[in-house]
Amino acid sequence: MPVTKAETRQSLLNAARRIVAAKGYAAVGINEILAAAGVPKGSFYHHFGSKDAFGEAMMKSYFDEYLTTMDGIVADKGKSSAQHLMRYWQNFYDMQVVDDCQGGCLVVKLGAEIADLSEVMRVATKVGTTEIVDRLERMITDGIADGSVSVDDSPRTTAEALYDLWLGASMMAKIHRSPDYLDRAMTVTRQVLHV
């Protein structure tokens, strides 16, 4: 059965995510991505207008998958909102401790790099991280409503502060190759949410 254009496009995005997560965006060439995806040279521009457009699509694909995972956590109706929140943070933790704390979060890996390099990637990342914080805010609000969570600040401010905490802890875990920073983030998260 022939491979569709959409499947080829997704194959390129998946290959790029793996490579870029390890090397960064600027260090990866289009030919390396094509080879990893098993896509012939010259076909890249059939799928993407430029490397920037490709980077934007890669970030959007990453956030689509990430947000789907978050939505799946919340969809578990047998759990309280506090349990949803802590499952989310445990997933975040688990993603960041892989490969000697080198992690798989493209926001941690690429945030500063793409903010300076590519406006379209920066905007895609801003939109994606805002959607993450939106979902965290809803989870906190739901937790306040069901009595499983209490916070000392607004749900929005708490969601932003916790997400910022985890991004910083992930960066420090990468630098030190130690989960200690993520362990502290988990402890602080429990304290902030009173769970």
Automatic annotation (TrEMBL):
Superkingdom to which the source organism belongs: Bacteria
InterPro entries attached to this UniProt entry: Homeodomain-like_sf (IPR009057), HTH_TetR (IPR001647), Tet_transcr_reg_TetR-rel_C_sf (IPR036271), TetR_C (IPR011075)
The keyword NADP is assigned to this record: no
Pfam annotation, one family: TetR_N
Keywords assigned by UniProt, alphabetized: DNA-binding, Transcription, Transcription regulation
Positions of the HTH tetR-type domain: 6-66
GO molecular function: DNA binding
Keyword rRNA processing in record: no
Residue ranges the UniProt entry marks as DNA-binding: 29-48
Organism: Actinacidiphila oryziradicis
Protein name according to UniProt: TetR/AcrR family transcriptional regulator
